[in-house]
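Working notes for the structural subgroup meeting. M.R. asked for a predicted model of this chain before we commit to crystallization trials. I am recording the input and output together here so anyone reviewing the notebook later can reproduce the run.

Input as submitted:
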Amino acid sequence: MARFFADLLTASRQETRPLITLALPICGAQLAQAGMSVVDVMMTGRLSATDLAAVSVGSSLWMPLMLFMTGTLMGLTPIVAQLLGGGQTPRIRPNVHQALWVGLGLGIAAALLLGFAVMPVFRLMGVPEAVAQHSAEYLAAVALGMPGMALFQALRAFSDGMNHTRPSLWISLVGLAVNIPSNFVLIYGGAGLTDLFGPGLPAWLQALPALGALGCGLATALSFWVMGLTMAAYTRRSPAYGDVALWHSPTPPRLALIGELLYVGVPIGVAIFVEVTLFTLIALFIASLGEVTVAAHQVALNYTSILFMLPLSLSMALTVRVGNTLGQARPAHARLVAWNGVALCLLVAGLNSTLLWLTAEPVIALYTHDAAVQRLTLSLVILAMIFQVSDSMQVNLAGALRGYKDTRVVMGITLIAYWLVGLGGGHTLGEYGLFGQIAPMGVHGYWVGLIAGLTAAALLLGERLRRVAKGVANGEVEIPRS
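Returned structure, recorded in token form:
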């Protein structure tokens, strides 16, 4: 054991810098994409409450679909990373082509669901008719962009696997730059342009209709296609990808390669979908506890989600580094790479928790001036500090395991830890208390449940990584080869 820690310390001097170099552009890309959602909410909220509600309700449907699609395509990253590490670059191109075929199928399927299957869901949710109608129009517009987003995510997974994460940052910023003016023109129409630039605009510009939520959806779809096509152009022209020659000699669908991608990727997509639905369901349960509680929960969760971007990005970078090292046939070093990433994420989580404690009051004041909301949010921040550590640990342990292409067990652990422990335990504590000894805890019970679920996930994933990494290093466990 002492020898292992000595080797880990040596590896950390070599591996920490490359890991951070990979992670920072990913973090920027995640923040830029999150910024698009913030812009959507801010701009539609200024138009009308109905349009804001329509976009909010619609986002709760298309975001999980997009994240499932993204997670599935992320299965390409460890495949490419291992092939690159093993010097098998000629085999990368056909694998990426299969991901593009899968992305096309997923993008079209998501578009059809959003375009034609949402009204029954709205009726089941009891969404008011006016909001449902506007939201359906918004989703039909977003649906047009889903194949474009699938193209972007497939090529991003390829680029990340090639240790080239900066394009996702710059192209996400391009998407944000397209989204902001497109939103303004399409949401507010000619009236908004006239208010901004004065009455000297051409008549045809002043006559543009204000499309509200529909315009927001069209702007989102346009941004998705710009991101996808820009990524395609970059991967075609950039010399950063060596002799992969991605856009030459298209490969037709190959069931074996598609099967491997789905074997690795679908569990990732399901795990991400489960995590998203966990937070969605908790928000629905908390809605019955009153406006102050809902507001405090959303403020605390929003702030911690921003801080979580760096641990999440480290997790995605760790998948690449572990995959590269395994492709180089260095399983003992891959074990050190994995645990160094986990140790680094623990340090980042500690810094995030400290930042939460030091900045809680002024940051909460930026969100709301309501004293009751501020007090309740501040009480949740203490739980959020623990939440940061558990969440950072579990996401990076999962990232390391994905580098080993070990995704099905991660999916199973996620299902148990999130829904059974996190959601079930949180709802029990929040609504009923515990065995008559603890009174119902309200929103604090749900947060304790979240911490318990994430901690359970971290412990189970930690044990899984210990077994897999040690087994592969000792030649006792085989990893799937591309």
